[in-house]
Specification:
With about 230 residues, this protein is α/β, with parallel strands linked by helices. The chain is built from 5 helices and 12 strands. The chain has a 5-stranded mixed beta sheet with strand order 10-9-8-11-12, sandwiched between helices. Helix 1 links the parallel strand 8 and strand 9. Helix 3 packs parallel to helix 4.
């Protein structure tokens, strides 16, 4: 996976000349902040972007953009899969098929883990570069019980690597978004996401077959939308 990394550079330099007989003393400090940005046109990444295509502000103050570059970095992926009763049948089967495809598409240097949740939250596979345990864990999963989306996301955030090195920690959540049994509140999870530094992607399944049958429009979860925005 490639992502444009925006390097924001601010430099300050001071020169002190105590006396003509002494050599000038130079002091310089450079702060570099790298920001991950994904720019998409529908489902396709946009290439060929330069620093002039971006604006970065800090508390409303525009910052100097030094460069924009495309770097390929290893992923440290935490897959969080909803296995609650509301996903029973073909809906869970489709999710499992999609996740199998995702696991098989990972590069050798990528690390992945799998967490499943209904009411209890379970770390099914610890972070690994071996694809076989992930594929085996996805086989035979069944949907049952209530839904603890908040608790699952919070625990997944706590399992992020303390030192990811050059890898990029990513949380990928698959759910229908209807939390029915978590101990934690939405605000707790949003705050934990802000502090985690993890990139968060959300795939939400909306029960379209219910629309019209019950006379109720099923709308996407406001919380999951906020979670994805908070996680970049």
């Amino acid at each position: 996976m490639t992502r444009p990394l925006i390097a924001v550079i601010a430099a300050a330099m001071s020169i002190a000349v105590p006396g003509a007989e002494q050599q000038p003393t130079f002091r310089a400090a450079v702060d570099v902040v790298r920001i991950d940005a994904s720019v998409m046109n529908g489902l396709n990444p946009v290439a060929g972007l330069t620093a002039t295509n971006f604006v970065v502000t800090d508390n409303g103050v525009p910052q100097t953009l030094d460069s924009v570059s495309l770097d390929t970095v290893p992923l440290n992926l935490m897959m969080v899969l909803d296995t609650s009763g509301s996903l029973a049948g073909e809906r869970l089967a489709h999710l499992i098929d999609a996740m199998n495809g995702l696991v098989k598409s990972l590069r050798p240097e990528d690390t992945a883990a799998l967490m499943t949740f209904s009411e209890p939250v379970r770390l099914a596979v610890k972070p690994t570069r071996d694809r076989q345990p992930l594929l085996e864990a996805l086989t035979g999963l069944k949907a049952d019980g209530a839904t603890s989306v908040n608790d699952a996301v919070f625990l997944a955030l706590q399992l992020r690597p303390a030192d990811a090195g050059e890898s990029r920690p990513v949380l990928l959540l698959f759910s229908d978004g209807r939390d029915t049994s978590s101990w934690l509140r939405n605000d707790d999870v949003i705050e934990a996401t802000k502090r985690s530094g993890m990139l968060v992607h959300v795939v939400e399944l909306v029960a379209e077959e219910w629309m019209g049958q019950r006379g109720v429009e099923i709308r996407p979860s406001v919380f999951l939308g906020e979670l994805a925005d908070t996680g970049g």
